[in-house]
Write a structure and sequence with these properties.
Layout lengths: L2 H40 L7 E6 L12 E6 L5 E6 L3 E6 L5 E6 L10 E6 L4 E6 L4 E12 L5 E13 L8 E9 L3 E8 L4 E10 L5 E9 L8 E6 L5 E6 L3 E6 L7 E7 L7 E6 L6 E5 L4 E8 L6 E9 L6 E6 L5 E6 L4 E5 L4 E6 L5 E6 L5 E6 L4 E7 L7 H5 L14 E2 L10 E2 L2 H31 L3 H14 L4 H18 L1 H27 L11 H26 L5 H9 L8 H25 L3 H9 L4 H29 L3 H6 L17 H8 L8 H35 L3
Helix pairs in contact: 1-14, 3-9, 3-11, 4-9, 5-9, 6-7, 9-11, 10-11, 11-14, 13-14
């Protein structure tokens, strides 16, 4: 042979080897790059919370005798403010302590301007309690103004929303809080020196012609209070009143109607009788935070009792404990994050939903007062040395944790712990529910029902076409199946949702009859054909064309199932099986359910399973088939005992490829199910899969937010699941290949 030809061939072989190797490595690099990309987006979900001290100005006290009662911070962390007991509200720059404004506040009704307490109740609204027993509500705001050169200046603003002047002769005030809502007016609650619990409420009435009038109502709340009330708390709109005692009791009243004040709860929070030292409401005003004198922090909200007596305040969460009594709570306005301050000046930040500790903040000098800004990204505190400290808080994803994604949590207004996915609601203060368990269960459920249809039909069909069907007919059937795989899944989902789902609902009884009647009819027909051929009644030339003879049998069986099903609907189920299931068994039937998914997804996966299985069965060496037939085995014995075991690695690979295809299917599941993220294996209900959830949620997910990154975490799970399945499948395929000696 010409040496030049040999060198040319070898050179081309080397080039082909390099190209193939480079192409394979490029594919691996691209796949790993995709994994790194999606994992990089999801990774910040699990970064720990952190703080950074950004300013440390001196406290702006006008005279050495005044005491700072409360501190606050704007959303830009550039301006802080203080309330002092001499009635002064001072705004100053956090960078250098420069005083910007000082307002001398005066109590309603005149008299002493001594301020006893200033308490924030969300969005920079403050309830002020004065020495003369008066209560007032102030709102602090910060307005950005821009100069001609584009320079931004933050201007503090102060607005008095409402005020309550004590009536003449009222005993001295021991505790008092006030709330104001534009549509509900002023609500004030007081504990007087003589122990009386008194409620003042401004009742606003609106006429049909757009006018409004108000009436002030005073009510003394009669309650068997065990011990002395140490804490009072009103929700921001003045509808629910909470009280706590030094003997560990919690009380809750409905005060929406001052003429019908109802005691809803009287609960001993702690069996050992420890005093309750602080109360607070998390965002949404549903979960009550309770701090006690031993440093414990618990979360409570009403839970339905189930006996018709309404909802009762129940301890749901137990957060990280302090080493000293809790004195204040700072709830975030962005998430179910709760900051708590103890008497030693240590701050804990906890996430209520999963009870996780986010961070702990302790200073050299104990903190006497703290304030959290509206964005929950800034914290201001006053320490015992008179210094103001301003921190930058970095808690971008407090809702994200392994417990959130895979744990069973007790959410607000739920009767018990549950796996729930609910990423949004009608209000901004709801509790996000990011459990991936219902989505994983939905993915497995949809895949199971899809493979339940595709696996047996694909493998058995491949066995028949490769070994029993006439080659001429096989040459027509196999391309038809392969063309089926090219049908867009959006078309399959569209037909399943709008055409197949109504048929299944209207003919559910016929469907179940079909599951039994169709296989029995086919088996009976095949037995009849075998008996006729054994007596030479049917010509031998029919071998390989039994498929065509089965078509009328299948049509007759389907027609009989639908005809009998309509009669049974009337006689047994009173007109419809879905309604009977709900009325008699309490089983809900959704029109877009797992039965529809079984047909639709099975139709999409079937061509893959059939084609790969057919190739594996066809490629079994013909000498094995010939040897089996020569030894007297029947065609079925040859297929089941010789060809099938030899082709089992390829068939297993076909099933795994089909399984992976079903796991990642999006459009069919998106269109043909109710997209309900529930854990229910009933075939009469729908589901939501991980892939469909990404398609549904990603258009509305804020870029970089918790939901956005959680969807990328779902993509990582899908990727990892597919990788693990393919790896396991390859290991099993290799072992099967070695066991059965496949070429």
């Amino acid at each position: 042979m010409d040496p030049r030809l040999i060198r040319r061939v070898r050179r081309r072989d080397r080039i082909a080897t390099w190209v193939i190797t480079a192409g394979g490595l490029s594919v691996i690099v691209c796949v790993l790059g995709i994994l790194v990309l999606i994992a990089r987006v999801a990774f910040p979900l699990f970064l720990p919370a952190s703080t950074r001290l950004i300013a440390n100005p001196p406290a702006p006290v006008a005279n050495g005798e005044s005491t700072i009662l409360a501190v606050g911070l704007d959303e830009f962390r550039s301006i802080a403010f203080t309330f002092t007991d001499d009635g002064a509200l001072t705004f100053f720059r956090t960078a250098n302590g420069e005083v910007l404004q000082r307002h001398l506040l005066s109590p309603p009704g005149g008299g002493s301007s001594r301020l006893h307490a200033a308490q924030e109740f969300g969005a920079l609204n403050y309830s002020l309690r004065w020495a003369n027993g008066a209560l007032s509500v102030l709102h602090v705001s910060f307005k950005p103004e821009f100069a001609g050169d584009g320079t931004r200046t933050i201007v503090p603003q102060l607005e008095e929303l409402a005020a309550h002047e004590p009536p003449p002769g009222e005993p001295a005030l021991r505790l008092g809080i006030a709330r104001f809502a534009h549509d509900a007016g002023l609500t004030a609650a007081k504990v007087l020196r003589d122990g009386t619990l008194r409620l003042y409420k401004q009742v606003v009435a609106t006429s049909l012609f757009g006018g409004s009038s108000s009436e002030d109502v005073r009510v003394d709340i009669a309650a068997d209070v065990p011990g002395q009330i140490t804490q009072l708390l009103l929700d921001p709109v003045g509808e629910t009143l909470y009280a706590a005692t030094d003997s560990g009791y919690l009380l809750r009243w409905d005060v929406r109607d001052p003429n019908d004040v109802r005691l809803l709860d009287r609960v001993q929070a702690f069996a050992d009788g420890r005093a309750i030292s602080a109360l607070g409401l998390a965002v949404g005003h549903y979960t009550l935070a309770v701090g006690d004198e031993l440093g414990g922090v618990t979360g409570w909200f009403p839970v339905a009792t189930g006996n018709g007596s309404g909802a009762r305040l129940t301890q749901i969460h137990r957060l990280s404990s302090h080493s000293s009594p809790v004195v204040a709570f700072l709830p975030s306005l962005r998430a179910k994050t709760l900051l708590s301050l103890d008497r030693n000046g240590t701050i804990h930040a906890d996430q209520l939903t999963d009870e996780s500790r986010l961070l702990t903040l302790a200073t050299e000098q104990p903190l006497l007062a703290v304030g959290l800004n509206s964005r929950a990204n800034g914290l201001v505190g006053l320490d015992a040395a008179g210094q103001v400290l301003v921190w930058e808080l970095n808690m971008p994803h407090p809702e994200a944790s392994w417990a959130t994604y895979f744990g069973k949590l007790w959410y607000e207004s739920y009767p018990g712990p549950a796996f729930v996915w609910q990423s949004s609601a009608g209000t901004d203060d709801f509790e996000p529910k990011f459990s991936l368990v219902p989505l994983i269960a939905g993915t497995l459920k949809g895949t199971f029902y899809g493979m339940l249809f595709a696996a047996p039909l694909g493998v058995l069909g491949a066995m028949y076409t490769s070994s029993l069907m006439h080659p001429r007919l096989r040459g027509t059937i196999k391309p038809v199946f392969e063309v089926m795989g090219s049908i867009p899944t959006v078309v399959v989902g569209f037909l399943a949702a709008l055409w197949l789902a109504p048929i299944v609902k209207a003919s559910l009884t016929a469907f179940f009859l079909m599951l039994g009647l169709l296989p029995l009819s086919v088996v009976a027909a095949l037995a009849l054909f075998e008996w006729l051929q054994g007596r030479d009644i049917l010509p031998r030339s029919i071998r390989g064309y039994e498929f065509l003879l089965m078509l009328p049998v299948t049509a007759v069986a389907l027609g009989a199932a639908f005809a009998i099903g309509r009669g049974l609907d009337v006689l047994v189920f009173g007109g419809g099986m879905p309604e009977w299931l709900f009325n008699q068994l309490g089983v809900r039937f959704d029109q877009r359910n797992s039965i529809v998914i079984s047909f639709a997804m099975g139709f999409a996966v079937l061509p893959i399973v059939f084609s790969i299985s057919d190739d594996a069965l066809t490629n079994v060496p013909r000498n094995l088939t010939a040897a089996s037939l020569a030894l007297g085995a029947s065609r079925w014995q040859t297929v089941s005992r010789v060809i099938l075991p030899s082709a089992s690695p390829g068939i297993f690979a076909a099933l795994m490829v089909g399984f992976g295809r079903a796991v990642g299917e999006t459009m069919i599941v998106l269109m043909a199910t109710g997209n309900t993220p529930i854990i229910d294996w009933s075939p009469f209900n729908g589901m939501r899969t991980l892939a469909a959830n990404i398609a549904v949620e990603i258009p509305e997910a804020p870029f970089g937010g918790t939901l956005y990154r959680t969807l990328f975490l779902s993509a990582v799970l899908l990727f990892a699941t597919t990788f693990v399945l393919n790896s396991v499948a390859e290991v099993v395929r290799i072992r099967l290949r070695r066991k059965f000696g496949q070429y």
